[in-house]
Amino acid sequence: MGAALDVVRLALHSPALRGTEHSLRRYALGSRFGWAAIAQEAATCSLELTLDYVTRLPDMEMRDLERLLAFRHARIAAFSAALDDADGPFAFEHSRRCARAANHRIEDSAWTVLRQSMLLAMWQRPSGTSVLADGVATTAFRSAACKNCSWSVYDWDSFVERVGVLLQGLPRALL
Ligand SMILES: [Zn+2]
Q1: Whole-prediction pTM value?
Q2: How far is the CA of 153 from the centre of ligand 1 (A)?
Q3: Does residue 123 share a domain with residue 97?
Q4: Of 69, 75, 59, residue with least CA distance to 171
Q5: What is the Å distance from ligand 1's center to 105 Cα?
Q6: Strands (E), the chain
Q7: Number of folded domains in the chain?
């Protein structure tokens, strides 16, 4: 058994199992043999992958699959909660106020559309690397202007920075 395990361990580091596209197989093997560091690395790597009904999953124990899905879900849930929190990092975007005059009411459709597109991207890729990839939604958001004073509503640089901080703070470890 010892020698066989060594072969599996070596295989995990071979080019055939390297890379994001093989991360689910690495995760399955790491989990099966109790190699926590390998399972964690592979789980993190697999956050780049979309899992849906056409995804062919490697053989793995149901509890290991559950654990992987719970990890993904914990990130999505934390991200969604922060996006939706009217007192959270996006309090300004939720406030519908113009940065120039508090009584200028902002139509929030660009923010609503961007939020939805960010959440959808997070479901597809819980790494978060694609949350700002929807060019239509981000362009509308960036060009949104106050109807009263034409002032640009949203501060894009500040927004991107806050999204980055949020992504950094999401759960990083398998539960
Ligand atoms: Zn205004």
Answers
A1: 0.91
A2: 8
A3: yes
A4: 75
A5: 7
A6: none
A7: 2
